[in-house]
Amino acid sequence: MPFNNVSSLPSIVSYGPWGAHNKDFWKIRHQRDILYLFYEDMLEDPKREIRKVMKYVGKDLPEDVVEKIYKRTTFKAMKDNPMTNYSNIPSSVMDQTISPFMRKGTCGDWKSHLTVAQNELFDEYYKKEMSDTDLTFRF
């Protein structure tokens, strides 16, 4: 989809505008006890992020359980699992022949699907959209 200007970038997710959705939860994360996890961090050190979730829910699990969680939550394991890859959802709801729910599991691959001009427009949109928050994403 070509983008003519920043305002034409698709910014709506099923929960409302993407920026507002993320920034609103970021603002109240301490008052409402919200745990933020970032995909890049999960790829960088999955067991560290699993331990963050354990701490958040007040659990102290043995290392062998952490290892099992790690193995069952790798991208490959989840992509192969119908319970997590949405392959059981009817194609009338999610047509995975157009785009599978789980593609590669790599960070930043979305940029390889945009033209240089579209990437520049997104960068401009992101800078404007996130200018009033300290929430940052790694690309």
From TrEMBL:
Tell me the superkingdom of the source: Eukaryota
Which molecular function terms from Gene Ontology are attached? sulfotransferase activity
Key word Transferase present in the record?
yes
Q: What class of enzyme is it?
A: transferase
Residues of the signal peptide: none
State its Enzyme Commission number(s).
2.8.2.-
Indicate the segments forming the Sulfotransferase domain, all copies: 11-133
- What family does this belong to? Belongs to the sulfotransferase 1 family.
Q: Which InterPro entries does the UniProt record give?
A: P-loop_NTPase (IPR027417), Sulfotransferase_dom (IPR000863)
Protein name (record):
Sulfotransferase
Instruction: List the keywords (alphabetical).
Output: Transferase
